[in-house]
Design brief:
The chain is of the alpha+beta class. It has two helices and 13 strands, in the order E-E-H-E-E-E-E-E-E-H-E-E-E-E-E. Strands 3-6-7-9-10-11-12-13 form an eight-stranded antiparallel β-barrel. The chain has a two-stranded antiparallel sheet with strand order 1-2.
Length: 226
């Protein structure tokens, strides 16, 4: 038995009644929370975009012989972006890159990159990125955290996205949007440890790799055009 003191004296209330009331309140609270989550997921107004591979560049750079940076690209990329400027936290990014499409303008070097010393394209033919969280960093910028998988190894990275822009109609009369994203990764984190020691000291290939993606997005279901 619990005793409450009110303005007109003591009021008695059974403990079972109090527990039942608390359980009902907690249940209602959880219901409101889940209802809110459902609203954000289903009613966020997000638009599904697909990557236009013709107008998208996936590039990387790595220091070579400690004197210069060698650049390369992946010539093929697919993926999708679900985005709503009003609720960026509800956004989602998925990207797939065929390793065979690597191009550094040197066929012998490209073949080496596809080998087991680096990407091991025979056993791990696709690089993937799946976002886990997205947050606004002000203006036209976002921080997109996600899982990058290369060579069978998955590591969390953060893409710094900037330059978000869009046009209501491209040459085909379709809306289009785009942005740039950058990140830094260590190739050793993905099992790529091949290197050579220079006679004068130091390593031939740096561990740090810079990534840059300039992406053009079109609404899902729209074909690419030049």
């Amino acid at each position: 038995m619990i005793l409450f003191l009110g303005g007109n004296g003591a009021v008695r209330c059974d403990i079972a009644t109090v527990n039942a009331a608390l359980s009902l309140y907690r249940g209602l609270s959880r219901a409101r929370i889940f209802a809110g989550m459902k609203t954000i997921t289903q009613d966020s107004g997000s638009t599904l975009w697909t990557i236009d591979p013709i107008h998208t560049t996936v590039a990387f750079g790595v220091r070579h012989l400690m004197v210069t940076t060698v650049h390369g690209v992946f010539e093929r990329v697919t993926g999708s972006v679900r985005y709503n400027a009003a609720v960026p936290e509800a956004s989602e990014v998925r990207v797939e890159i065929p390793v065979e499409s690597v191009n550094t303008r040197a066929p012998q070097r490209d073949a080496h990159l596809r080998s087991a010393d680096f990407f091991d394209a025979e056993h791990h033919p696709v690089i993937t990125f799946q976002s886990t969280t997205v947050r606004s960093t002000g203006g036209d910028s976002l921080a997109v955290t996600g899982d990058l998988t290369m060579r069978g190894v998955t590591r969390e990275i953060v893409l710094a996205v900037s330059g978000l822009a869009g046009v209501p109609a491209d040459f085909n009369g379709q809306p289009r949007t785009g942005a740039s994203a950058t990140a830094q990764v260590k190739r050793s984190d993905f099992g790529m440890t091949f290197n050579k020691v220079l006679d004068a000291g130091g390593l031939a290939i740096a561990d740090e790799v810079s990534l840059r993606i300039d992406v053009s997005l079109q609404k899902a279901g729209v074909s690419s055009a030049a």
